[in-house]
Amino acid sequence: MTTTVSIAATRAAQTLAKSFQSGRAADLVLPQPPSALELAGLDALMR
Question: What span, in angstroms and rounded, lies between the C-alpha atoms of 35 and 9?
Answer without folding.
Answer: 19
